[in-house]
Amino acid sequence: MKKTTPSSLTLAVLFALAGCAAPGGAPVDDKVDNNHRRLLTLDAHLDTPVHFGRAGWDFGGRHDPAVEVAQVDLGRMREGSLDGGFFAIFTDQGPLTPEGYAAARAHALARSQLIDTTLARHADRIGVATTAAEARRLDAAGKLVAFKSIENSYPLGDGAAAMATLADFQRQGVRLVGIVHSKNNQFADSSTDKPAWNGLSPLGRDWVREMNRLGMVIDASHASDATVDQMLALSASPLLLSHSNSRTSFDHPRNIDDARIRKIAAGGGAICASTIYLSELKMGPLRAALFDRLEHIGTLAPLDQAALSRDWLALDLVEPLWQTSFEQYIASLKHLIAVAGIDHVCMGADFDGGGGLAGLDNVAQLPRITERLKADGMSDADLAKLWSGNLLRVLEAAEKGGSL
Ligand SMILES: [Zn+2]
């Protein structure tokens, strides 16, 4: 929700002043657009920090999706009225060894600081939040909202030091932490690996208790079914799945079955609808090589960044990562709402982490979702829950459960 609701004309002037091209895609009806703009809209999983270190790339700009791989920037957040979300410290997994942990920890700390310095550069437009109340205050003041999150707890390392490092990240402002990514780690089994711990490891059980004590939200996206079950049983606070869908919509281990969705909802948690794994993943050798380059885009010279964007977008034309249509995405979102209930669904598209689909390929297009749901008769109150109310409630529950 914004205090001021800029008209299309004002926006056009703003884009012109910023040297921006006109927004791409079909224009959204003004009335619906205003509906969307009145909402506080948050995305639970933004991988955009992968772009923060790029030489010559400005998070404050509005990049043209026709030539640019990044899907989120302040210009397009304004255009699509995305008011903020959780910016992820993602760490790719190396060996589960002291050397591997040390390298990963250094990476995660550097990424955390990079998020801080990038946000500080744009402090007039986006503020850092560590509580639900702070997010609402920032929004009321007309500012965008940035939370910090961790995807993959691998960089926390092993033993008692892991818990100290987790507390250290909490002090740095992190409020949402994913236990695992696509491979098993020292804490838990991943949904896309063979069981090693049959759920949580003993250290993973400590991790759950420490997350509760620190008042942080447990992110169960990427966790195996057994890991989810054990976290549900052990955690004093509700679980969040920051970017997942139902297996009924697309049967893949990265998605979650409806019985578990109901259990997470019954525990007060929420599932944030994603744009990924709603169709078969097309990960040929070309795309895999591009993903590797993308993970290190912050180290590339501007010309090499442009070449990567060009190669990525050229491959999108002949072999898109996903074949999902916008209507399939809407059907999946509606299924989540039918199963979990409107109080237990949130948004987490996985932009800049492999998310996006035709018609929803960057944040500028988010008003289409509101437009489509309004056309289906969804009330403004329910839209408010979906776009941020449920996510902030889960955060508040973790804050209250904490004992700091
Ligand atoms: Zn992910």
Automatic annotation (TrEMBL):
The keyword Signal applies. Pfam families: Peptidase_M19. The keyword DNA damage does not apply. Coiled coil: none annotated. One of its GO terms (molecular function) is metallodipeptidase activity. Residues 1-21 form the signal peptide. One of its GO terms (biological process) is proteolysis. It comes from the Bacteria. Keywords: Signal. This is Peptidase M19. It comes from Massilia aurea. The lineage of its organism: Bacteria, Pseudomonadati, Pseudomonadota, Betaproteobacteria, Burkholderiales.
